[in-house]
Amino acid sequence: DPKRLDDFRGEFSPTEVDLSTDNHRSSGTEIAKFGNDVLKGVFQQTYAGVEFEVFEAFSNLAMSKLVTTIYGARQRLIHAGVKDWSLAILVPTKKMTRLVSDILREPPGGMAAIRHTPVIDMEAAILGSEVVAFLMQCPGFHQFEDFVELVCNYYQGKGGNEPTKSALEMAARLHKAHQELKDSLRAQKPLRKTSIINATLAAYESARGLVFTGNPDTDWQLARSALAGCACSRLNEIATEVRNIRILERGTELRHALSEDWRQNGSYRNSLKITRQAFVREHFSIGGKPERGVVVM
Which Gene Ontology terms cover its molecular function (predicted)? Predict the structure, then answer.
């Protein structure tokens, strides 16, 4: 709310320093001016330090050129000896952020993947990660209700403060279908074949048979792949969302915690709790952490 700034000025009478035209990260260029002109939609002929290239109309060719252009820009920064360099890939929509992130993770033509950070709404990925972490705990059949609850939490929270009607309806349908399953088990009657809970239960039962190794990286991907390859579209969606987050790249602390959990218990007995704690710490620390490397936003 802009009025809060006026209230702050009125209360504290601060000294104001206008840094709107300063550019400490890219001195000697007109990148900041170009960015302002992009917002205004009015451009001058040239900008120092800004180049313009046209991508191919065909998607595969365009993405290939994007990848090779990033290779070149990254290599120039490394050769120039820039410390803690960052390279921003700016896209116009959230959907394209995910698209470009997927391309950089698995470039066409067998090109090398580009390690990067996609700046996306994290609610869905975080809640989806809880589903993956829960599967790593090798839960029993009686814990299916907890699994369903996590999937429902995903649909209720994936939109952040603005959940969609369809997502909330899906959570409600899952709750209702799970209740029908419990009622049918108590009555010792078969559940109707069209229930949406059938595919979810089948995927859960299959995932319970996963054999983990004690390597957090490998085991995380194994659990995610179980969701991606099952016949439940809701779990497929969660697996896709989790692709947009590199949970085990959030520092060696998480890896160490999961590895220690395995060493102490012979399993990931506390992987859900550990993963939740990792995101809480990330939430409180990310504000002071500068972006480094390739960033898609």
Answer: helicase activity
Is position 272 within any domain?
yes
Residues 223 and 137 in one domain: yes
User: Residue 103: is its pLDDT beyond 70?
Assistant: yes
Question: pLDDT, tens digit, for every residue of 44-76?
Answer: 878 888 887 787 778 888 889 999 999 999 999
pTM of the model: 0.72
- Which sign, positive or negative, has the C-alpha torsion 207, 210, 212, 217? negative
Which strand ranges, in their side-by-side order, compose the sheet holding 293-296? 86-89, 293-296, 116-118
Q: DSSP assignment of 168-219, as one string? A: HHHHHHHHHHHHHHHHHHHTT-PPPTT-THHHHHHHHHHHTT----S-HHHH
Tell me: do 99 and 155 sit in the same domain.
no
